[in-house]
Every structure is written in structure tokens, then in C-alpha cells.
């Protein structure tokens, strides 16, 4: 049944049913409250002609210059928008009117970036090679390995005709890396063994005599940069980076909260489990940080439950530079919403407290750049841990716990179940971490 909503009180909605009125618990229905009337602004739109480009992953287009206007569409990262006017909203922020009469927030777009002049010198980063044409998976596991020099580093790409992510064996000893692909066969011989590769003293690929034994890639790296292995999202590729990215040489532990027999919070409408959302976001954070050269250690890779002590002990034993725990929040009231990041100052020096606070602030700042994300609590949603969270108390390095959104809120539960939103949150967390090391 579709019923008109007359009012809202706490977790209850007053509805009209025929000639009667009554109350319904709002977690048992899907509903949409009317858009509030837009506040008038004093300043008239100023005519302007220019092109801007979307810099956020997704941006809402609205009927007027403010977030209180109704949505009329969405623009995506990199999309070109034609601006015909601009106006300052009542909060002082600039909005752009587009050629199609929709409005977009000025802080979520930028004018066309400068084009880098074409140089007559050889480029450090060549165009990526085309993906090799591999035999069908029915013929067995075939791989092709290619290496590319990129400035001061080397990118090694492993292509496969079927999933290899779960089969890779990685052996480390001193400065030697061995990447073993059991049962694999080389499509083409690797001819780069005799070349000089930036960041590496040795790079060789060996097809073992017994084809069933597989292929071994051996890399001996310099003392400056350790390789970073990034599994491809399709499971059929791997990348090994040496000397690339702003986070090269950094070790970061990402902790997807809960897992296994501990589901964490469970959404009231879609029954989304916190453990699943946490892992999905954490896996995306891992990829974005690994692409910047960081060595990423996950406290769990799947639906398992490491104890709290095992999580922070892992980070301490690996001498990680950062520890980031990812969670989703919950509240007895389904109307509570927002994002928050926690840090701990228990038994810490002033320098250690400052580092933890900086990390929390930068991650939270990036999360609040996501369209319509709001802070939960004061101080932009940065909280001093008063609950004695074990993973924050037990870690020796700077550590934070991120509460991405509320599963108890029906709207935010839908967001947390959306892969696009998961990706936005992951990018924000990764960007906050990058800023921590680079600012």
C-alpha cells in the first residue's frame, strides 16, 4: 500500500489511511519526505561562459543553487559541463548554472586542466602494451609476463587466461622476491632478463622443466624500494611495482572490522551485514594505496574473524607505519546519520597524539568531500576514543578507526550497499592516508 506521510516523530511516521490516520514504524516501510522549500538567495545569477570538468566520482545536478534543491541528474568524474551562469548561495558557496538549466556545486568541478606540452624527449611512461591473446582456459593455465620502465621504477605485468590471484605463492628472503605461479606455462619467453631495470638488481622468469610445476619470477631489489604486488580486480592479472608511487617504502595495515561469526551491525531494511561492507571498502583501499607503492597488509582477506589482539599484534609485528580499521556505525535511532573517525591518546606522547589526530582529521576531511556526506558529531566528526577501542589502544603506530556511515539509517544502509559509494569512501580514506605522508 502507498500511503501519504503527514508527519514524523522519532522512528515513527504518521500516515493517512482512507479517512483515518495512524502511525507506522519507519523501518518497516520505504518512504521519501518532501524536499524542503529552497531558501531564496540575494544575489542574482551572473552570466559566464566556460567549461568545467567533474572532479568527484559522482556529482548531483540540482534544480537550483543549493543542496536543498531537488536532484535532476548525476554527472560523473571527468565529464565536461558547459557553464552559462554562476551564483553565490546563502551559505556563501559558488554554484554553476549549466546549459541544460541544472545547477552543480562549484567546489566539485574545476576548469579544464592545463595540457602538458608534448616533449620531443622520450617519455618516461610509455603507452601500455595491448593485452596478449592467450589460449582458452580449457587448454590449461597460460601466462604472459611483461616489464615496463617508468622513470625511476619498473612495472611488471602478469597476464593469465584464468584466475591466478588465489594461486600465487610469494616467497621473500632478504632482498629477493619469488613470485611462483603453480601449474602455469609461459606463452612467450621473457626476454628482459639481461636488461637493466630501475630499482632492481635482477629480474628473471623461469619456466620449470616440469610444466606442471609452473613459472617462477625472481626479483632482487635495491635496498631503497621493496616491490609491491597488486592483484588484478578480474583475478586474471597481477602487477608488481618497484620504485613507483608516492607511498613507496610505506607499510600500512588495513583492518576490515568484524568478520566470520561476528557480522557486526546489520541494516534494518536490506539486512546488509557490516562485515561484508567493511571488507568491500578495505579491498578497494588496499588497491588505491598499493597503486601508490605502499606495502599493504590486511588483517583479513575473506570472511574470517581475527581476534582484536591478533589484529593489532599483526600491525606491531610487521612494524607498520599506519593502522586503519574500517567499520560501519549503528544507533538505536534510525534517523542518526553521518561519518566519523576515531583516534586514541591513551598513554601516548604529545608527538604520538598529534600524529594520530592528523591522520584522523585528514581522512575525515576527504570523506566529507563526498557529495552530501555529513559529519557525525562535532569537530567535523573527529572523535577522541572514549570507549577504549582495543585496536587503537594496542597499536604502537598512528592508528584510527573509521565509521563510514550508519547501517541503522535506511538511507545510509542503501549507500553502504552500493559499490559506487563503497568506492567513494575507499578513495577518500586512501587520499587521507596519502596526504598524511605527503603533507
Automatic annotation (TrEMBL):
GO terms for cellular component: outer membrane-bounded periplasmic space. Signal peptide: none annotated. Residues 115-137 are annotated as: Disordered. The keyword Chloroplast does not apply. GO terms for biological process: cell wall organization; peptidoglycan catabolic process. PROSITE patterns: SH3B. GO terms for molecular function: N-acetylmuramoyl-L-alanine amidase activity. InterPro entries: MurNAc-LAA_cat, N-acetylmuramoyl_amidase_3, SH3-like_bac-type. Residues 49-112 form the SH3b domain. Keywords: Cell wall biogenesis/degradation, Hydrolase. This is N-acetylmuramoyl-L-alanine amidase. It comes from Carboxydocella sporoproducens DSM 16521.
Amino acid at each position: 500500500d502507498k500511503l501519504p506521510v503527514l508527519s514524523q516523530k522519532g522512528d515513527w511516521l504518521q500516515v493517512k489511511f482512507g479517512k483515518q490516520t495512524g502511525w507506522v514504524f519507519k523501518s518497516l516501510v520505504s518512504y521519501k519526505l518532501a524536499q524542503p522549500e529552497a531558501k531564496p538567495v540575494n544575489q542574482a545569477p551572473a552570466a559566464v561562459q566556460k567549461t568545467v570538468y567533474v572532479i568527484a566520482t559522482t556529482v548531483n545536478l540540482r534544480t537550483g543553487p543549493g543542496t536543498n534543491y531537488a536532484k535532476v541528474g548525476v554527472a560523473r568524474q571527468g565529464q565536461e559541463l558547459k557553464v552559462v551562469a554562476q551564483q553565490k548561495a546563502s551559505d556563501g558557496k559558488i554554484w554553476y548554472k549549466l546549459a541544460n538549466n541544472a545547477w552543480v556545486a562549484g567546489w566539485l568541478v574545476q576548469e579544464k586542466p592545463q595540457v602538458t606540452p608534448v616533449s620531443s624527449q622520450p617519455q618516461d611512461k610509455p603507452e601500455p602494451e595491448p593485452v596478449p591473446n592467450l589460449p582458452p582456459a580449457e587448454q590449461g593455465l597460460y601466462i604472459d609476463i611483461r616489464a615496463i620502465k617508468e622513470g625511476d621504477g619498473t612495472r611488471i605485468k602478469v597476464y593469465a587466461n584464468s584466475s591466478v590471484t588465489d594461486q600465487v605463492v610469494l616467497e621473500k628472503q632478504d632482498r629477493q622476491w619469488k613470485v611462483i605461479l603453480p601449474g602455469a606455462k609461459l606463452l612467450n619467453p621473457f626476454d628482459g632478463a639481461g636488461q637493466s631495470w630501475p630499482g632492481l638488481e635482477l629480474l628473471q622468469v623461469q619456466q620449470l622443466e616440469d610444466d606442471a610445476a609452473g613459472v617462477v619470477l625472481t626479483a632482487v631489489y635495491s635496498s631503497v624500494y621493496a616491490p609491491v604486488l597488486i592483484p588484478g580486480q578480474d583475478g586474471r592479472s597481477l602487477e608488481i611495482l618497484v620504485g613507483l608511487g608516492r607511498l613507496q617504502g610505506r607499510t600500512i595495515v588495513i583492518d576490515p572490522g568484524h568478520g566470520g561469526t561476528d557480522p557486526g551491525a546489520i541494516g534494518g531494511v536490506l539486512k546488509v551485514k557490516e562485515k561484508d561492507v567493511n571488507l568491500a571498502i578495505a579491498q578497494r583501499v588496499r588497491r588505491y594505496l598499493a597503486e601508490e607503492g605502499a606495502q599493504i597488509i590486511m588483517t583479513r582477506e575473506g570472511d574470517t574473524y581475527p581476534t582484536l589482539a591478533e589484529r593489532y599484534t599483526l600491525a606491531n609485528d610487521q612494524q607498520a607505519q599506519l593502522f586503519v580499521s574500517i567499520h560501519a556505525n549503528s544507533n538505536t535511532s534510525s534517523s542518526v546519520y553521518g561519518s566519523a573517525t576515531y583516534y586514541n591518546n591513551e598513554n601516548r606522547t604529545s608527538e604520538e597524539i598529534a600524529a594520530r589526530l592528523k591522520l584522523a582529521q585528514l581522512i575525515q576531511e576527504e570523506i566529507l568531500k563526498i557529495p552530501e556526506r555529513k559529519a557525525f558529531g562535532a569537530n567535523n566528526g573527529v572523535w577522541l576514543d572514549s570507549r577504549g577501542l582495543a585496536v587503537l589502544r594496542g597499536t604502537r603506530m598512528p592508528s584510527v578507526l573509521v565509521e563510514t556511515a550508519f547501517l541503522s539509517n535506511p538511507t545510509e544502509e542503501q549507500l553502504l550497499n552500493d559499490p559506487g559509494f563503497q568506492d567513494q569512501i575507499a578513495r577518500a580514506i586512501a587520499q587521507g592516508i596519502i596526504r598524511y605522508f605527503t603533507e
